[in-house]
């Protein structure tokens, strides 16, 4: 037991994109819960920034479901980037024999899913097919309301035809009524919200700052007149509502 625990401590200190899945599975075999927890924490913090062919081939459906459903997932840029990462991951899960550079994965994935789309026909989404069905629980945790609010992203999702049409029609309806309420009823938004609901439905977006300094950027596309101006300086983040068409 002492040797296993010592190995566990070494594993926690040497987690990388090449070792994280092996460590997670090994920890499950030997009952090293603290190692499993550390591996999940590493993946939550690094999934979006350390993507690789090896990692995406090794990440199981169960682990990916835990990551995408977690409110602690660090999302670099926006929710559409999570969708794109899942598309690449699903392709590599289904075609593990594919080998090439990671820069080519998205192009290859798009071509492969386009071929499946032609085979299935226009009425069947890929996730509703026999091949795609096991991945449904993972994609169900995408926050689609923050994807379809951007025209370019909505067009890609419609073109890919990975998601069941019922998912999209439901969220289109939800967002349409939200817009009507905001424009015609002077909707001020929710007055009370619990922690679980906030964590499950809030917008996920982030930036990576490589060093200390002063940074400024805008997040647009909120559709209700909200244009955020974000400033990072002296390790403080300041959010302002941009009402003066300020530029960074």
Automatic annotation (TrEMBL):
<dbReference type="InterPro" id="IPR043380">
    <property type="entry name" value="Gcl-like"/>
</dbReference>
<dbReference type="GO" id="GO:0007281">
    <property type="term" value="P:germ cell development"/>
</dbReference>
<dbReference type="Pfam" id="PF07707">
    <property type="entry name" value="BACK"/>
</dbReference>
<keyword id="KW-0217">Developmental protein</keyword>
<dbReference type="InterPro" id="IPR011705">
    <property type="entry name" value="BACK"/>
</dbReference>
<feature type="domain" description="BACK">
    <location>
        <begin position="21"/>
        <end position="107"/>
    </location>
</feature>
<protein>
    <submittedName>
        <fullName>GMCL1 protein</fullName>
    </submittedName>
</protein>
